[in-house]
Amino acid sequence: MRATPRDTLRESVERSDAASGSSIRMFGIRCNAIAFGLINTRLTQAKEKGDFIQVEGQKIALGIPGKMTAAASGFEGIPLRRQGEPHEAAGAMLFLASSLSSYVSGHTLEVTGGAGI
């Protein structure tokens, strides 16, 4: 089976996280990563909405072209059948930053609605 670019990226993030975690664990420092799926932000909304950022005086359009968002609107690949909301992404970050995850290290937490990365 041939690896896709997404598989390669996921593997490198997981290995990097695990390697970082193992090298600093002896100092009591935890190292984890979060792999986000589709989260509802201005970057994942329709490009035609007109949101942009300005970098060094140049406007850069944000979003996904309409025909691509239309194709993804059914969320068939996401078991929860919806995109995540920013507060749900923040909850994952809060968990890893809190004492609730004090025994978690070298882990990649997937916030994907069950789709996996």
Blueprint of the fold:
Layout: H1 5-24, E1 33-36, E2 52-55, E3 58-61, H2 66-72, H3 86-97, E4 108-111
Parallel strand pairs: 1-4
Antiparallel strand pairs: 2-3
Question: In a few lines, what is going on in this structure?
Answer:
This protein has 117 residues and is an alpha+beta fold. The protein has helices at 5-24, 66-72, 86-97; strands at residues 33-36, 52-55, 58-61, 108-111.
Structure, described:
By secondary structure, this protein is an alpha+beta fold. It has a two-stranded parallel sheet with strand order 1-4. It has a two-stranded antiparallel sheet with strand order 2-3. A hairpin with a 2-residue loop joins strand 2 (52-55) and strand 3 (58-61). It has two domains: 1-38 and 78-117, Rossmann fold (3-Layer(aba) Sandwich); 41-74, no CATH class. The longest helix has 20 residues, at 5-24. The chain has three helices and four strands. It is globular and about 50 Å long. The chain has helices at residues 5-24, 66-72, 86-97, and strands at 33-36, 52-55, 58-61, 108-111.
